[in-house]
Every structure is written in structure tokens, then in C-alpha cells.
């Protein structure tokens, strides 16, 4: 499977709490991690390697770390890219996810419109309001706590999302790919 995630995230000031590494963690920690989760969900696999590069040079009000391309290799052999930018235009759509595999394509635009393409034909389009899953996430979590049900996401997935996210930061610092699967041996 090949997955492309493009995020036109918009500008956030250097002075914002979001950018404070101690409070908001920065946009990679606070936002990009969700796209690692999404890639894991679509592939059903864990990330084993990440490589990231930011824009460079003086960009005025834009932080280099808010404008980057990330490549992710998954354990099942799938690959994904995340293009995350803060220096785009607000009027351009925020998110586009493209999933290629098995002779089929799925495109998700702004989590409002999903299109499936197979054998040269659009198999269906589904329009829905923006749903990034927040409500369902809380509902499942509180149900698990209240009714003593298992949480549907394996703890290992949380760990690997975290390792991949920190690996992205390390890759930006070092300029080399970071292997995730050898970072932890207890799982």
C-alpha cells in the first residue's frame, strides 16, 4: 500500500502555546502524530522507519519545522508520505489523504468527501460533515472505562506512534532515517 497525506495546516505564531515544546509540544508532537496513527490504521501495520526533512533558510514568520515532508516505512512493506505545511494559503483545502493498493484508490478530502476508484470507475462518493473522530474517540474511551471494555487500539500502536513521532524529530536533527523497530524490545 502507498499512502500520501497532505496537510495544509496553516500558520501558527512562534509565540503560540502550540509551538512551546514544554506546553504544546510543537506541531510535530501535537498534530503530525495523528497522521502516523491514521497510517497505522489504514495499513494495519506498525512503522519501522521514518525520515523527515524541513524547509531550510530564513522563512520570515514561518517555522521550518512546520513545513516538512516525512517518509514512513511500515512493517508490512507499505510506505507513506506526510507533507505538512504551515506556509500555504488558508483558502486551499486543509487535508487530503490518498491510499493506493490492490488496484484501487481511495481519496479523502478534508474528512468530508471520500471517493473510491476501481477499474477506471468511481465506485462511490460519500459526503459527510468534518469528522476527525474526536467524538467517537471519547465515546469509546469512556465506554471502555465505564463498562470495563477493552480499548480497541492496542497499546503497542500508541507506543509506536510515539516512537515514530520522536523519530521524526530525531531525523530532522540528524538528517538521516531513524529505525523505529529497534528502539524498543519489551513489546
TrEMBL record:
Q: Which Pfam families match?
A: GFO_IDH_MocA_C3
Q: Which residues form the GFO/IDH/MocA-like oxidoreductase domain?
A: 8-101
Q: What is this protein called?
A: GFO/IDH/MocA-like oxidoreductase domain-containing protein
> According to the entry, what is the taxonomic lineage of the organism?
unclassified sequences, metagenomes, ecological metagenomes
